[in-house]
């Protein structure tokens, strides 16, 4: 059943988009550690549908540089408008939480901070370095903003030694004005290309949300653009409307269609792809990374 909302109709979720309410000792322990270290996660701030599964598996995606964003994207549940400067102690708190949670694979992302000269790159880099310093052997994936095309900011991130550099294009070129009004499609592709040029040893990754009104041809063209930029890993997931004030869902993509898109992505040239209604940027990130490294060893 569809539910009317003003002049718009909100599509009712299909059966395959039902999730079990999170619970369990591990879930509660992750929440305790995060609260004790005064840390944010994108799992909570962006209302990720995988929160229960990931917390119950003892994993989380750390959200640094505060919990408010300078951009007000039409799809995102993160609050708008930063209120305070970055906390210089945050890198150590993240590193300590990683140790307390005994994580072997860490995903770190951030809000976008266009109000800062370097976009927050220095604190981002210090967080990577702090995690490596007190968590021997831990792998770090970063999901970064575009830093408004600042090459020095990107270079600083790469010097810190992440194992994977992720930057999402989020949607197709035509939809950028409504979905990502503060971003530029070409700038995101350039970031991925420049990352490869600066350090070819660090694999790059990107992701798309489906269900915002994109066509199949537009999805295929975006795949081509990402591959041309040297992107090696891809995530595809269903866009879910966080609230009535956000962009509506134009369609719910069935699981079998996501399976077909994964097969197409691999055939097109991506080394690994995760594709499904609940897939998000950091979903099963460790598994994608392991597959890519195994293929490297085979070459």
Describe this structure in words.
- The chain has helices at 25-36, 42-45, 51-56, 90-100, 121-134, 151-159, 176-179, 185-198, 216-228, 255-268, 285-298, and strands at residues 3-5, 8-10, 40-41, 61-64, 68-69, 79-80, 105-110, 139-143, 164-166, 204-210, 233-238, 272-275.
- The chain is α/β, with parallel strands linked by helices.
- The chain has one domain (20-298): Alpha-Beta Barrel (TIM Barrel).
- β10 (204-210), α9 and β11 form a beta-alpha-beta unit.
- The chain is globular, with a radius of gyration of 18 Å.
- The N and C termini lie far apart (51 Å).
- Mean pLDDT is 85; it is low at 1-6 and 42-47.
Q: Which segments are poorly predicted (pLDDT under 50) over 5 or more consecutive residues?
A: 1-6, 42-47
CATH superfamily: Aldolase class I
CATH architecture: Alpha-Beta Barrel
Shape: globular
> What does the main sheet amount to?
8 strands, mixed
Level-1 CATH class name: Alpha Beta
Provide the CATH topology: TIM Barrel
- Total of DSSP H or I helical runs spanning 4+ residues: 11
Number of domains: 1
Proportion of strand residues: 15-25%
What is the tally of beta strands? Answer: 12
Biggest sheet strand order reads 3-4-7-8-9-10-11-12
Overall pLDDT metric: 85
Classify the helix fraction into a percent range.
25-40%
Query: In whole angstroms, how far apart are the ends?
Result: 51 Å
Alpha-beta classification: alpha/beta
Based on CA atoms alone, the radius of gyration comes out at 18 Å
